[in-house]
């Protein structure tokens, strides 16, 4: 049995409203205190889960990207092969054998005589300016549009 | 209220449940620590072994390029077509569809398609990409494609230089020509890689990959062949072979200063992409493999030996006659309109110019066996040239100890010895370049897969055959042959000065000279006096005419003219229309 405590002095409640409010606050604090542990645990779990989820998402994203890179590489190889095939096709089309057959079909024959035309290389004649200094200055004073042209 | 209720109704059960959970959790934690920690490495290793596979990585075979760097032969990824007869619903319809793609089907394959118990049969191995696409488009049950590990060899230029390039087998191993001779360079080395694979055995991208042995792709071999000159040589040779219904022919174009083989044409030839459809004879590199009796083109050996030994001078004269008896054998001049007559005399230049066998025999007899044989050996006859092509025939040049009484006389005009076309062309290169015997080569350089130069073949002088002065005199003789002798006018080209020698040799068939079997040849150089090309042409067993001047010289002229224009050498006004 617990002995009821005796208060030597009488308790005077100065402001009942304030007391009631304090009691309410105390009750709320107590109520909150009851869930603090749970809240903290949940927070930690959420954080861990978030980390795990982000790891999973990043890993899956990396895997997806690596598949995309592999696909791109395969595409590149296919295109390279296609380029080689086209090169071969060009080589076949440009082959001397084919061209000679085409020429024969068109009735073309090799010329029996060759005509060598020698063209004299034209001599570039530069007109000498009478006054070199003045002519260079003329360029400087020419309008901007003219210079651009 | 709740606390009270919980405290009252659940403490025992809750505790039991809690303890049970704890036990399970502890067990799981223990197993986890065992699996992940204690035995973790072992399990990881086993798991990796389960999902990984060691595969052989085949090295891609290197390409073969011409001297300009254009691809002549390369390997492409290949596919093979196979059938699963069990799955084929209508074998006849399937066979008909396949016939539309492949043309003719092997009867064995058709029978296999009807066999409902059969699981697998090849329809075609290593088909071209176009055919594979057409098969894929069929999309019929029981017909499928399999990617091959090794590639499909594609000769981009068709049958051009086919006898030189050779061909490969199903496993891309070189079987003939350059493909065979440089197989170790072209083939590369296959490697082994351990990699992670998914449930279907496909490699997991960016999965664990461990290279056990790295694969080394084959190197690229660049040849000295000029595709245009090769085409021209083949074209000109084909024209002559067809015109004279000949058995076969060979044409060679060489750079006398480097020993590079610019063209090596053989007829008949074959399509390397379908080599199995041609017989062995069509696949022979006659220029290197076949030795023959050269005939009059060999007179230049006699002339070189005579002039270089100074036993015969430019002004020495020999009695002119059309028959001579040596060692119990009568030697005649060819009845080609250039008879020697009797009573007069002729110089060495005239003997070669008009291709007098009797005169050549007299020159040979005057210089003696030792001098003649020494010149033959110095000229490289009887030895492999070192060109590096498979099956090279060194020729037969018997030593004087094996000679009969008439051997020296007959050898002086090219009978009783056998040489290859390449050996003859090489000798004429020495005449053209001032007396140096070059090592002929067909490979110019070798590059790795990254295009880095691995090896460059440099010109190699084997030895000096004769002096520069002798070479100059020999060229003068050859020029005279074209101007006034047996090469007039068929070996002349308008605008370009040529020099060369005709050859008409009886062929040995089954150990004896047989009438009507001749090898007509012409070996020359252009432009005279400082030649840029040596051109060799030989046509075997022509019908109609058999003289080198008629059968081979026109091909020489056609090739030389094209070569000059190809090299950008303009026709000279100083050389008249008839090449004089």
What does this structure look like?
The complex is a heterodimer of chains A (149) and B (580). Chain A has four helices and no strands. Chain A is an all-alpha fold. Chain A is elongated, with a radius of gyration of 49 Å. Chain A starts with 15 loop residues before the first helix and ends with a helix. Chain B is α+β, with helices and mostly antiparallel strands and 580 residues long. In chain B, 35% of the residues lie in helices and 22% in strands. Chain B is built from 20 helices and 23 strands. The longest helix of chain B is centred in the N-terminal third of the chain and has 28 residues, at 11-38. Classes of the chains: A mainly alpha (149), B alpha+beta (580). The interface between A and B is medium-sized, with 18 and 24 residues.
How many β strands of chain A by DSSP? 0
As laid out across the biggest beta sheet of chain B, the strand order is 7-3-2-10-18-19
Give start-end ranges of low-pLDDT stretches of chain B.
none
Q: Segments of chain A where pLDDT lies below 50 for 5+ residues?
A: 144-149
According to DSSP, the number of beta strands of chain B is 23
**Structural shape of chain B:** elongated
Shape of chain A: elongated
Query: What percent strand of chain A?
Result: under 5%
Structural class of chain A: mainly alpha
For the largest interface in this structure, which chains are involved and how many residues does each contribute?
A: A-B, 18 and 24 residues
* Tally of contiguous helical segments of chain A: 4
Straight-line distance between termini of chain B = 132 Å
Query: Major sheet of chain B, described briefly?
Result: 6 strands, mixed
Strand content range of chain B:
15-25%
What is the assembly state of the chains in this entry?
A: heterodimer
């Amino acid at each position: 049995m617990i002995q009821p405590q005796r208060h030597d002095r009488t308790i005077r409640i100065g402001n009942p409203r304030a007391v009631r409010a304090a009691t309410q606050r105390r009750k709320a604090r107590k109520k909150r205190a009851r869930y603090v542990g749970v809240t903290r645990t949940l927070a930690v779990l959420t954080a861990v889960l978030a980390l795990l989820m982000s790891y999973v998402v990043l890993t899956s994203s990396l895997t997806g990207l690596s598949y995309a890179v592999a696909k791109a590489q395969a595409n590149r190889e296919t295109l390279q092969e296609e380029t080689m095939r086209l090169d071969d096709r060009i080589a076949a089309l440009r082959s001397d054998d084919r061209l000679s057959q085409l020429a024969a079909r068109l009735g073309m024959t090799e010329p029996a005589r060759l005509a060598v035309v020698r063209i004299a290389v034209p001599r570039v004649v530069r007109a000498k300016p009478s006054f070199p200094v003045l002519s260079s200055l003329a360029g400087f004073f020419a309008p901007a549009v003219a210079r651009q042209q | 209220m709740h606390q009270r209720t919980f405290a009252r109704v659940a403490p025992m059960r809750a505790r039991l449940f809690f303890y049970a959970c704890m036990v399970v959790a502890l067990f799981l934690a223990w197993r986890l620590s065992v699996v992940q920690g204690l035995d973790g490495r072992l399990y990881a290793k086993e798991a990796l072994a389960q999902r990984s596979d060691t595969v052989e990585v085949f090295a891609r075979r290197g390409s073969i390029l011409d001297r300009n760097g254009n691809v002549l032969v390369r390997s492409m990824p290949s596919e093979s077509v196979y059938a699963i007869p069990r799955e084929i619903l209508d074998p006849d319809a399937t066979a008909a569809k396949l016939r539309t793609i492949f043309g003719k089907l092997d009867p064995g394959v058709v029978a296999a398609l009807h066999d409902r118990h059969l699981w697998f049969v090849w329809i075609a191995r290593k088909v071209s990409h176009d055919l594979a696409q057409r098969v894929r488009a069929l999309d019929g049950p029981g017909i499928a494609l399999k990617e091959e590990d090794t590639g499909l060899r594609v000769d981009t230029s068709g049958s051009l230089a086919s006898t030189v390039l050779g061909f490969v087998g199903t496993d891309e191993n070189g079987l003939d020509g350059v493909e065979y001779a440089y197989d170790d360079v072209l083939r590369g080395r296959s490697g082994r890689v351990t990699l992670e694979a998914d449930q279907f055995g496909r490699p997991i991208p960016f999965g664990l990959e461990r290279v056990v042995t790295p694969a080394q792709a084959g190197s690229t071999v660049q040849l000295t062949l000029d595709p245009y000159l090769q085409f021209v040589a083949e074209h000109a040779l084909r024209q002559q072979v067809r015109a004279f219904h000949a058995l076969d022919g060979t044409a060679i174009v060489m750079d006398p200063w480097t020993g590079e083989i610019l063209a090596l044409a053989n007829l008949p030839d074959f399509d390397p992409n379908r080599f199995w459809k041609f017989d062995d004879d069509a696949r022979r590199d006659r220029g290197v493999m076949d030795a023959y009796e050269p005939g009059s083109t060999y007179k230049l050996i006699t002339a070189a030996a005579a002039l270089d030994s100074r036993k015969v001078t430019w002004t020495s004269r020999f009695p002119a006659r059309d028959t001579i008896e040596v060692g119990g054998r009568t030697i005649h001049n060819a009845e080609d309109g250039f008879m020697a007559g009797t009573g007069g005399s002729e110089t060495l230049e005239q003997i070669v110019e008009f291709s007098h066998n009797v005169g050549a025999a007299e020159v040979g007899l005057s210089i003696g066996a030792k001098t003649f044989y020494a010149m033959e050996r110095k000229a490289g006859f009887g030895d492999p040239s070192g060109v590096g092509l498979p099956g090279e025939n060194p020729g037969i040049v018997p030593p004087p100890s094996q000679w009969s009484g008439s051997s020296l006389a007959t050898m002086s005009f090219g009978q009783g010895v056998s040489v290859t076309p390449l050996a003859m062309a090489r000798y004429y290169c020495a005449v053209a370049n001032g007396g140096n015997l070059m090592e002929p080569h067909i490979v110019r350089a070798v590059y790795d897969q990254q295009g880095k130069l691995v090896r460059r073949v440099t010109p190699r002088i084997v030895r000096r055959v004769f002096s520069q002065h002798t070479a100059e005199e020999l060229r003068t003789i050859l020029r005279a042959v074209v101007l006034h002798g047996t090469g007039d006018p068929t070996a002349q080209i308008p605008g370009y000065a040529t020099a060369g020698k005709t050859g008409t040799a009886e062929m040995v068939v089954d150990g004896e000279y047989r009438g009507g079997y001749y090898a007509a040849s012409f070996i020359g150089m252009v432009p005279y006096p400082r030649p840029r090309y040596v051109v060799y042409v030989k046509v075997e067993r022509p019908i109609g005419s058999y003289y080198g001047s008629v059968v081979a010289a026109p091909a020489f002229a056609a090739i030389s003219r094209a070569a000059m224009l190809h090299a950008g050498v303009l026709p000279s006004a100083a050389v008249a229309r008839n090449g004089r």
